Amino acid sequence: MARARFLDQVSLGPSNVSSPANVIVQQTGSVVGVVDTLNFSGSGVESITLTGSVATIYLSGGSGSQGPQGASGSVGPEGPSGSIGPSGSQGAAGASSALAYWLYSDDNTMSDPGAGFFRLNQPWAFTSTQISIDDISNSPSINFGSYLDSLTSGSVIKLEAVLDSSIYKFLQITSVVPFQTGYEIFTVNQLGSNGSPSISESFAFSFPASSNIVNPFPYTGSAGITGSLAVVGPIVITGSSSTSPFLINIPDGNGDEDKLKVNEEGALVLGKLNTTPTAVSGAIFYSASNEFFFGFE
């Protein structure tokens, strides 16, 4: 009995497909053999068409073995840069060149302020003339007794709030109270001050040279002040024989703009007013008609 090795087409004789006679097996027109029985196994038969006495069976080929892996493709071009992310929040301002940090105590008694604290002999808003500093700082917790003992008259102490550099004091030591146990007291001249600290607020202590002090008091020279000026303590104005050391100028259109001055010879001079001002008890003004007027109740 002949057996087909490769089947493309099955040609049938005059009998129908169910007849077991004269089944001719051919390979695309070339007769392979004649069989009585033709078996198909597997799932490779896709379809069968019958045209007259010829039946064509369409077979699908099985999957071949997997081919070798292809070579990697070339690297693609670099993508565009992403957008810049938002800026982070600003950190707290630090105090530069600090020796260490002490906490503010609002107790104005000149005694031991307690470990990590300092005191002034006046409320912060007023002019301090003494400061008490504990030998042990708050951060880092170190005993600075020997260093504080080495400070002498003329040394400058700068106090600056750690979280707000606009809160500060400049103090210049004028004398040292005999050494105390565990703390030091210094008599000082306040060179400058600003802000209002909270109780137990942390302050950076530094000791700049007096030539580096930004706040320039005592002040020498001329100064023009716009706005208000609050002065605590005496004011000493030293003039010369050629210029007026003191002048108040009010450009209000009423007579002389120089309302009050001390001339170079020390005479107090009132500016002339064209219009009589509002009467005030205790006031004095000088008119454009060269007359003095005094206010009474």
Commentary on this structure:
By secondary structure, this protein is mainly β. The chain has three domains: 9-59, no CATH class; 100-212; 246-294, no CATH class. The chain contains one helix and 18 strands. The chain has one helix at residues 145-149; strands at residues 9-12, 23-27, 30-35, 45-51, 54-59, 100-104, 117-120, 130-134, 156-161, 168-176, 183-194, 202-206, 246-249, 258-262, 268-270, 272-273, 284-287, 292-294. Strand 17 and strand 18 form a beta hairpin. The radius of gyration is 53 Å and the shape is elongated.
Number of strand elements: 18
The secondary-structure class comes to: mainly beta
Sketch the major β-sheet.
Answer: 7 strands, mixed, barrel
- Report the radius of gyration as a whole number of Å: 53 Å
Helix content range: under 10%
Strand arrangement in the largest pleated sheet: 6-7-8-11-10-9-12
What is the element layout, followed by pairings?
Layout: E1 9-12, E2 23-27, E3 30-35, E4 45-51, E5 54-59, E6 100-104, E7 117-120, E8 130-134, H1 145-149, E9 156-161, E10 168-176, E11 183-194, E12 202-206, E13 246-249, E14 258-262, E15 268-270, E16 272-273, E17 284-287, E18 292-294
Parallel strand pairs: 6-7, 16-17
Antiparallel strand pairs: 1-2, 1-5, 2-3, 4-5, 6-12, 7-8, 8-11, 9-10, 9-12, 10-11, 13-14, 14-15, 17-18
Short description:
The protein has 297 residues and is an all-beta fold. It has one helix and 18 strands.
